[in-house]
Amino acid sequence: MKGDFKISCDEQNSRLDMVFNNHFKDFSRSHIKNLIGEGKILLNGKTVKSGEKVKFNQIVSYDFEDLEPLQVQPENIDFEIVYQDKDLIVVNKPQGLVVHPCSSTKKGTLVNGLLDKIKDLSGINGVLRPGIVHRLDKNTSGLMVVAKNDKAHISLAEQIKNKTCKRSYIALCEGVFNKDEGEIKTYLERSKSDRKKYAVSSKGKIAITDFKVLKRYTNKTLVEFSLQTGRTHQIRVHCKFIGHPIVGDDIYGKAEKNLKGQLLHSYKIKFIHPSTNKEMSFQIGLPEYFKEYLTKIKEKN
């Protein structure tokens, strides 16, 4: 694929990777960042960083091999629709379900299941991520809000960006917390040793997580986490950082043979409805495997 385009007046002062993503919606932001880093996307003929702010009339040129197009087909995927109206859907994503297709996972995702059940989804994120406003990790369960049209998508995305969409999680962590509640505040960036992981750093993006202890066990703690920011793997990295990795987390802690992944559940979400402007709040209980695990451990005396 080879070509170029000129920065419009509306696009000036935006990040290069975001501008390119607007022109090629089927490309993931991470793939675009890699292309920019490899010098396959240039700004006025020069290699720049993905976050470079573009100016009016600058030329974005690109030259790279075409990606094999992914055809996203509707599939009968098992997940619960908690709420639905003409603008949005609230789903309960089960553990083990990837949110949207990518180069390594081409089918069997939440998006494939949504296409099977829902006629219309917003198109802002392209054909691979229709309706997807925010994500949960594959092995994190719980509530997600999905947009059915572009108006709803823009509204919900803005609420997440402005931190007015509130998301709360419950996790079982290793060890016993000393404090009943508090705030974890760090900078996070992609790990230099493993590109699939994120790490606390002296730079990167600010990440803030509030926590509140729900119950202490002999060597574990049940904790409620609320996001002030929404960074990739934020809660999981923060738990590792404070010395209390999430039980079953095979990336930031250790795997357990009787668990398929981390005991982390998105149990509450609150936002303003894009059309009615009314506050909407949804809450859902822990999945059965999570509750069953809790019955097998002892409470702290």
Observed structural traits:
301 residues, alpha+beta, Structural Genomics Hypothetical 15.5 Kd Protein In mrcA-pckA Intergenic Region, Chain A, Pseudouridine synthase, 3 domains, 6 helices
Write up what this structure looks like.
This protein folds into three domains: 2-63, RNA-binding S4 domain (Structural Genomics Hypothetical 15.5 Kd Protein In mrcA-pckA Intergenic Region, Chain A, Roll), CATH 3.10.290.10; 80-162, Pseudouridine synthase, CATH 3.30.2350.10; 168-266 and 290-295, Pseudouridine synthase (2-Layer Sandwich), CATH 3.30.2350.10. 18% of the residues lie in helices and 29% in strands. The protein has helices spanning 16-23, 29-37, 110-117, 150-161, 234-241, 288-295; strands at 2-6, 41-43, 59-63, 80-84, 88-93, 141-147, 166-174, 181-190, 198-201, 205-216, 220-227, 264-272, 279-283. The strands form two sheets. Strands 4, 5, 6, 7, 8, 9, 10, 11, 12 and 13 form a ten-stranded mixed beta sheet that branches. Strands 1-3-2 form a three-stranded antiparallel beta sheet. A hairpin with a 6-residue loop joins β12 and β13 (279-283). α1 (16-23) crosses α2 (29-37). The termini are far apart.
Structure summary:
This protein has 301 residues and is α+β, with helices and mostly antiparallel strands. 18% of the residues lie in helices and 29% in strands.
Per DSSP E runs of 2 or more residues, the count of β-strands stands at 13
Number of domains: 3
Note the run of SSEs as H and E. Answer: EHHEEEEHEHEEEEEHEEH
The shape is globular
Helix content: 10-25%
